[in-house]
Amino acid sequence: MEKNTRTIIFIGDGMGGLPIDGLDSQTTVEAADTPAMDRIAREGACGLMHPISPGRPAGSDTSHMAILGYDPQKYYRGRGPFEAKGVGIDVRPGDVAFRCNFATVEGRTVVDRRAGRIDKGTDRLAEAIRENVGKIEDVQVIFEPSVEHRAAMVLRGEGLSHEVTEIDPHDPGVDYLESRPLEDAKDRAGAQKTARVLNEFVRRVHEVLEDHPVNEERRSAGKPPANIVLPRGAGTAVDLESLKDRYGLDAAMIVEVDLVRGLGKYLDMDVIRVEGATGGLNTDEMAIAKAVDEALDDHDLVLANIKAPDLGGHDGDCEKKIKAIEKVDRALGYLLDNVDWDRTTIMVTADHATPCAVMDHSGHPVPIAFFGHGTCPDDVERYGERPCAKGIMGHLRGMQIMDVLTNMMGRAEKFGA
Fold first, then answer.
1. Domain 6-76+240-409 superfamily per CATH
2. Rounded to two decimals, what is the model's pTM?
């Protein structure tokens, strides 16, 4: 078995899409100027990937789990624990963790679920929450801001349950929700207590943030205030085997959002933060590419994710998404010019489709291409949904990716005698 080979998993977050009339019926990937991805497709092996299964929309957390070889159907416990772990909160047994958004409301109506994608001042808002809403009944509230409008919260106390509905309605123009126990909650009393605490948390946070100086400054600047927090994705601590123990690989992760960083920490990957990697459209893609190249010096596997394409998809802004895809391509161009491909394999894909017409994750397959060491090139000429559909790799599921990559690395274990 070859031991000096390395692999890169490079993900354009939400990069997949659907044909658009205004783009001559091309997808945003097909319409973008992507010389690096096209070279990877032309000289590599291509196909389509279903992150979970055909037709099933994937979250970024569940898709990354599957791509790294951990079956979400077996291990997934909600988004909250990953987000909390990613911002540095130690999620303990019995805790209930939530992923949260700073949002804008008028009365109970959600005006903007992301508070104008607020990118400054959330640390001050979080400090006010910790000072004023640090405990509800006998439950400790642990709250930390994440990237842009995102945050994480953990409820810690006796008799709690994750079996509650969400506050976040996931759509603007409607009222935010009251949390309630799930209809099939096994721990009814625990779910009732958790829902009660969660609703009180939201009410008190709204009071604290409504007239906070950060929001007064935002209103004066014509920006939507971040005057509420909307929790979602309740979950409990997960127990995952390290990637080193499962595959024998020293692995690193270079990503921009704490949700995925949290997964990397659960898997004992080296989570590398890159200056200039903002998680937004202004992210420094070249700094990310250089960090990937450097990480290959002492890691067998490096996973990188650039968030920007997903933002354009959620906003329904095709031009923004195309520009973000081209940022991903520039990062890949740097790697093509600087990595030793005689001993390195790269896989380029999306963690899910976020079509501009849908403005959310969808269950459509995403293009995938393998390049470098151990690959068998096919006749595909360019990167995109329809070109890659003709490739030698066919249709793959996320859970098959690590088998493919370890085989291309020459590190796969034989099955059978």
1. Alkaline Phosphatase, subunit A (3.40.720.10)
2. 0.83
